[in-house]
Amino acid sequence: MNTTLSDPSHKPLFPRGPGLGLKFAFFALLSLAFLFTDGHGSDSLAPVRHWTAWAMTPILWVAGFPEAVSGGMDHLRSRESLLAENRALKETQLKQEARLLRLASLEAENQRIRELLASASALSDRVLIAEILATSQDPYRHQIVLNKGERDGVYRGQAIVDAAGVMGQVVQVNATSCVALLITDPDHGIPVEVNRTGLQTIALGRGDGQGLSLPYLPGNADVKVGDLLVSSGLGGRFPAGYPVGEIYELRHAGGESFMEAVAYPRAKLHQGRQALLVWSERVAHSDAEEAPAEVPIDLPARAAAAAGSKPVAKSRPPVVKPAESKPEATKPSDSKPAATTGQTAVKPPAAGPAAAQPANHPGTIAPASAPAIVKPAPAATKPAITTKPPATAPAPASTPTTRP
Amino acid sequence: MSRAFSFAFSLALALLLQIVELPDSLALARPNWPLLVIGYWALYAPQMPSIVAAWFLGLCCDVLFNAALGQHALALVIAATLIARLRGIYILFPLWQAALALAPIWALYTFLMFWMDGLTHHAAEPALRWLPVLSTTLLWPIFAGVFDGLRIRRARDLNRLRLP
């Protein structure tokens, strides 16, 4: 009657099961084993991670609940604010329409110029809107959790952008969610170029949540405060041409050979609830894991290949698809082959370097997913040639025309 | 049965509170909820499997924060073991003194985090590491008092006349 503590909180007289030290040793060793396995980049613990993340889905969902509720509160907003917002949106839309008009012509021009260069670099990217479930739970890791996962085709290393610029990349993919590292995380680096001059460099996260640092600028680099940084697409992970940040400070200590620039990210990293997942076209075709490593900077290589093998016929796009190219790659250039091949097919008898040309054909045009095919033309064109054994000069001159 | 439920529930709640969104300025000083809950169970209910729970909770934290797998788990297990081992001393203190006496354990946890971040080559802002130690220490008396009160009240409801 007078026991103030319930019985189980006393130490049992004869304890059963393993003792404290043994339990501690077991779990500490287990953790250490996990740490070392994980630290050495092995993938054997991926299932553990995957299933733990799966088991915690309800907790994530509950954690996002307040936001969902406050989102529901939006229904109760006043009419005035809705009207004002509507007006602002219309204005923005009008402005953007105007810019879009220019974009169409610029895109067409870009397409023509790229065709001159014989490069089929991706212009339009596939995107998917994802909701941000959670942000920076840890003040010194700049990460966000998005509500799209493996099920939606998200892959590791995928770029994430918002309306204003590049946000980061996916570092972990779960079944229905993914974790993305923001560009301001100290572990993150993104290849950028200065939009005004085309200077290539790398922007690293500073870890203070709002800055990017460009530590590897030569002392005499042509960089100014206010310069826009855009993603350069080197490394193949980020699609080229998206705004990344804007330089606001230059630091050049006397006697140092490198200058450091500090930039603010363009993307609104801690505002808004949506982000865009971007499939860079070249990655989407091939295996997502290794594609970024393999995809080289295709522009110079292609230009060189094209220039080397085709001194003539520059004015027309020599763009023909090999028969086995993926269907979704049939973009704007699709309508051209008929006209094009008509032209090029006439040429070989007359032109001298034509011998190289037909063999080169299927290779050059291979969609962006397989840029490696460009260089060793005869070997790489094998799949195309197997359908038509005579790979010698005269016969293939007509090959393209027979293709649909 | 009901104790097992409150045990599991408190663990889930700790995870939830650790990831729920806070304003940026507050998030810096977010107390370490898993550590608080595990510390509470290790100190006041030694018959509970707090070390096992610490390991699983740590694993969940690792996945949530995308840290190296085992990082939070190891630190939580060490903290739980220390508290369980030193329970005889801590249990004698009144609540506020216990809060102060437990602060070194929170600091040790933070240091372990710091150290393992270094091992796994994750650069972190060291100054930000120490705010949670302070907030956890400050929160301990409130948390332990309230949680203890809840448990005792329920125990009283369950078996009347047991407690004065």
Q: Radius of gyration of chain B over alpha carbons? A: 16 Å
Largest chain-chain contact?
A: A-B, 53 and 53 residues
The N- and C-terminal alpha carbons of chain A lie at a distance of: 94 Å
Uncertain segments of chain B? none
Provide a count of the helices of chain B: 9
Please compute the radius of gyration of chain A using only Cα atoms.
28 Å
Compute the separation of the termini of chain B in Å: 24 Å
Q: Tell me the total number of β-strands of chain B.
A: 0
Which class of secondary structure composition applies to the elements of chain B? mainly alpha
The low-pLDDT segments of chain A are 283-404
What is the typical, i.e. mean, pLDDT of chain A?
Answer: 68
| CATH architecture level-2 label of the domain at 124-292 in chain A | Beta Barrel
- Write down the domain tally of chain B: 1
Helix content of chain B: over 70%
Characterise this structure.
The complex is a heterodimer of chains A (404) and B (164). With 404 residues, chain A is of the alpha+beta class. Among the domains of chain A are: 124-292, Thrombin, subunit H (Beta Barrel); 296-402, no CATH class. Helix content of chain A is 35%, strand content 19%. Chain A contains 13 helices and twelve strands. In chain A, the strands form two sheets. A six-stranded antiparallel beta barrel of chain A has the order 1-2-5-4-3-12. Chain A starts with 19 loop residues before the first helix and ends with a helix. The model of chain A is unreliable at 283-404 (pLDDT under 50). With 164 residues, chain B is an all-alpha fold. Chain B has one domain. Chain B has nine helices and no strands. The radius of gyration of chain B is 16 Å and the shape is globular. At the A-B interface, α1, α2 and α3 of A face α1, α2, α4 and α5 of B.
